[in-house]
Amino acid sequence: MRTVLKQLKQYKRDTFLCIGLTALEVVMEILLPFITALIIDEGLEASNLPAVYRYGIVMVVMAFLSLIFGAAAGKFAASAASGLSANLREAIYANIQTFSFSNIDKFSVPGLVTRMTTDVTNIQNAFMMVIRVAVRSPLTLLFSFLMCMWISPPLSGMFLIAVVFLVAAIGIIMTVTIRIFSQVFHKYDELNASVQENVSAIRVVKAFVREDFENKKFSKAVDSLYRLTVKAEGLLAFNNPAMMIAVYFCIISVSWFGAQFIVGGSLTTGDLTSLFSYIMSLLMSLMMLSMVVVMITMSMASIRRIGEVLRETPDLKDPDNPVFQVADGSIDFNHVSFSYKHGSDKSALSDIDLHIHSGETIGVIGGTGSGKSSLVNLICRLYDANEGSVCVGGLDVRQYDMEALRNQVSVVLQKNTLFSGTILENLRWGNPDATDEECIAACKAACADEFIDRMPDGYNTHIERGGANVSGGQKQRLCIARALLKKPKVLILDDSTSAVDTATDAKIRSAFARIIPGTTKIIIAQRISSVQDADRILVLDNGRVNAFDTHDNLLAHNPIYQEIYESQVKGGGDFDQPA
Q1: Per the confidence metrics, is the pTM higher than 0.90?
Q2: Cα(309)–Cα(107) distance, integer angstroms
Q3: Which tens digits make up the pLDDT trace of 361-382?
């Protein structure tokens, strides 16, 4: 809670103004029944018309002031609650930007999105209710009871009986309901996960004609959520009957004993009328407090989830005196071991000892799960090695400023991402200051100009979100061009030509040798044709170095490489090459 409330910042003033104005609004409302009693006793019963006018004007002024205080309090409440939600979203987003991949793995991307949307909205609504209702209701309860005590202490005892009964009834209902709402939030998360999975994999669902299966799974999740929600809301519905029992008890008892006090002369008609008003105010404030408890309880899960993100510290940090210049593209793995979960027995990489010269072209090949992507993730310090050290340009990557290192180590992933905007805007992610000519040159090197020139608006063609209006191969070539614009010391292609035909793949590799000869190039691929011309080829097997040599030597002596070569070349060739 403290972590979340720290984000109020500049909206603390609005919060306190709302609380103060709400208190003034309550004071005005509490005094109205008292003035009504004076009108009845000193005006109507005494046939004193000037007194009626005098007290009537006071009532109008007080009602008008109450209206002004209430409207101003509502405005400041909206400002404070909306400001809190805006600050929370900014704080969460800013903290996420500092996360390393290992931090993001803890929460998952859908979980982080839910925290910034649904959870923040829950907190915004709860905060607005707290600074309005949670202030108004206790004050109304207290002032109403004090006025009752001042008017008639004996009759106030009836209120205490009703209040004790109502508190006990609401307490029992709330205790059971809170437990059910905790289960509701768990089911709500399961429902969101089902929607997220289905929508993100909609092409697979349709390709395998599994719509009925997904509909049944979703209906089951919805039905479970429905049953729990009905159970919780059904219990909350008992709040109203409990409230009415307390109200009717107070009305009947106050009417009965009040009539006797009036006859006895110890109570006036006006006092009895005001007592009835205070009855309703007192009991309604209790009911509103119970609703506040429910709202706060429902938002506590959101507060905990957001607090987890705000308290999370990045696993990777810059050193105290970071290095900002990468000397060259040499890469050294010095007996490196790495696992995604610290302390896990399962290692992604084990005792990797490699030494790559600046400007070399290195091919990396191996089966699924052999550690290819894990290896290159350590070079640009997306993760840190558990044992050993990874050096770029002769220095341990942990000695560099991370932004400086990643600006000199450019990575093109297999699952590339394009952002909504023009092609030029996407290309300039690699270099915001790149000229149109530089962008065109990079696209020519990546063989992207072939399809860009055919587009109606050329380089100003709008790319839809996620690159939905370009093919997989086109997306890969645009991302390669984007990486080239960084003019890096190290270029890593993580299976990033998998959707490109072998002829285009060869053209791209030829362009690399021509335009970035001094850049160290690491090419991860499944195709022998993509790596056979490399200076050396690394063969990985179960996270270990199986071999590191030239194509000819591996073909002559390495069984794993021989098997891959035989299956691809002699077994029929690559998917788009004739046998």
Answers
A1: no
A2: 8
A3: 999 998 878 888 889 889 988 8
